[in-house]
Amino acid sequence: MTTEPMQAVREFITGRNPKLGVLTDDLDLIDSRAINSLAFVEFIFLLEELTGEPIDPEELDLDDFRTLLALEARFFKKEPVR
What we know:
This protein is mainly α and about 80 residues long. It has one domain: ACP-like (Non-ribosomal Peptide Synthetase Peptidyl Carrier Protein, Chain A). It has 3 helices and no strands.
């Protein structure tokens, strides 16, 4: 099941890459150029809007952006409160 924020992420990527074809959860978004350097800043702004939290570029790990699964785990999965 795709969450609403992840659907927005998918739409952002496919909207800028209509020839990409099927966008699987484990597709390497960087190697496939689904997220390129020109759209990366705009993509960060989208993630900030969807999460409601600022993203510090100094704390970014490229692997957090490698796949849809990694994006979901890093930005949309909340740790349970203990």
